[in-house]
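Form P-L/3: holo structure prediction, ligand tryptophan.
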Amino acid sequence: MEKETKSVVVSGARPTGRLHLGNYWGTLRNWVDLQNKYGCYFFVADWHALTTGADKSENIAANTREMVLDWLAIGLDPERSVFFRQSDVKEHAELALLLGMVAPISWLLRNPTFKDQLQELHKQKYKGQEDKMKQAEGVTKQLAEAHGHDAGELALHSDMATLGFLGYPVLQAADIMLYDARFVPIGRDQLPHLELSRDIARRFNHMFGAPVLTEPEPLFTSSPVVPGLDGRKMSKSYGNTIGIFEDAKGLETKVKKMYTDPLKVKVDDKGHPEGCVACAFHKLYNPDWKAREAECREGKVGCGACKKQLIELMEKELAPLRARRAELAASVNPEELLAAGAAKARAAASAKMAAVSKAAGLI
Ligand code: TRP
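OUTPUT (holo model):
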């Protein structure tokens, strides 16, 4: 049977809100292609969402359901891939617990994103409340000093440095190894996390003297740069996104807001496409984008006309997705789909847990 000989790919996404074009071009388009070549497990990482946002969890369940409909609409196929909700398959937590017995805390502290992300979380929490932020930092410093820790270990004493947050890479390692994934599609920035997964797998196998866990390999997928409306990376936290299923009116308004070359004021001023957001989107949606860039440089087209054409091109590609999304919302119960996916995932996960528990001497 062909399916059984295919290498397994695992990937997850946090249910943090509706998907945008940065998610689409950066991740989801690749997922759709991966389905042709691999046995794919795609899951909604709801426990992961809690590692950084336990205080804002009220939309997780609703976002999970919306995300599944988004996935279907862009072409992820539950007949070919398994999709499920992480918290439906308790083995993720069980394996994470066992991996936690062999993953040294020092490895987790060395994770380069730990301190960076923690700082980012602090900034978000105390946005516009400078004195509260200073106060929290003061408490953190006092705690560190009381423990005889130096500034390098300050992060550990933050009220947001929870066990779940520090252990996030361990849960991620469990997500991957539960399905014997050969590959994990990632961007280069996530390589340290995957390396950590590999180190944990190796240590586990060595400690228990059995090659029970598979070391996952990175699968570097190419994806274009998708700027947000303001020219920074498209990201929900910057408020500069265009939703994949944005309605026609919203799409038009947003394209009109896109940052363009500030030196091009009059229609016939010569433009500089590098750094222009509308030009970046022509690259994605206009097969003749090279000709457009040349026209821009020569001052043969104004930004208004350029954006007008972009709106038409984007609308042509996005309207069918939007229609499909609406049809799916009316006809598919995402909870049913998730339940069916969870049953398939659980079959693989429980077999793996039996082997792992045996290796660890529990049964
Ligand atoms: N790290 C991903 C994120 O935060 C989600 C994720 C969780 C994941 N577990 C995973 C991705 C396993 C790939 C494999 O968005």
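COMMENT: The beta strands are 8-13, 39-44, 82-85, 183-186, 217-220.
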